[in-house]
Amino acid sequence: MGAHSEKEGAAGNYKGGFGFHPMLCYLEGSEAALDGILRPGNAGSNTGADQVAAIEAGLEQLPPSLAEGEVLVRGDSAACVHEVVDFCREGGIRFSVGHDITAPVREAIAAVPDSAWVGAISQDGTPVAEHPTRPRRAYVCELTEHLDLSAWPEGSRLICRRERAHPGAQLSLIDTDGWRHTCFLTDKEGEDIAELDRDHRAHAHVEQRIEDAKALGLAKLPFRSFAMNEAWMQLVLAAQDIVGFAKALTLKGDLAKAKPQTLRYRLLHQAGRLSRSGRRTRLRLARHWPWATDLAAACRRLDALPLPAG
Fold first, then answer.
1. Which terminus of the chain, N or C, has fewer Cβ atoms within 10 Å?
2. What predicted TM-score, i.e. pTM, was given to this entire model?
3. What single-letter DSSP state applies at residue 127?
């Protein structure tokens, strides 16, 4: 999150930029932004206390029906710190976080026989090797028995994925014979490690949610005051919730999956005129606008929704 001027809390980050470094939580299976905390730009990615604070804030937003069931916290390798993992274990929460490929992990990968690798599956459940749009092959294996994971909570497992790198992609030392390796640490149970890998990789959806937040106003914070920028961030997250719920409840087809920029152009900026007659108020839309019928249909669906109880 960049800043082009001196603002309270703005600082240089590890990417060479200048601005802020927030921590955000999103609910999988929806476009809901649970919560987040604003931090200075030089705040570390793997600061366990900040991540725990963001997770706690996000958990408080869950309805009781969801909070009482099994909750899974997913994150990239920055979340693979003891503060986060221990917090999840103490709270009865499952975790699935990326894990760096350290020297012991490299040795474990090299020691795994070829027979231990099983075919990976894509998000739609089809084998990666047979997916029409992903011709390169991918496999997963479990490294738990080949490593000392005693420093992590009991039941922790380390899963490794290898897949063919894109042509021309730069490989690391462990990426041999054209295979690229990634690992994650989890305490989820189950013998289907391909399903565990698929579940963990769905964490990538958070990148789309962050891009949506930036399009709704999070790319730049407008105030000099840190507290006011914190409030701005919460307003952006609230707007993201409203847009997500509006799409789920009132839109169909491509518009139900549209990005904020597309919705802004097609629907939110659509010209209209309010007219009043016979004690009724009507919204008149321009007939020539290509998406006027879509907006009218969305309004009808909104009117047809039952009023909330109470």
1. C
2. 0.86
3. B
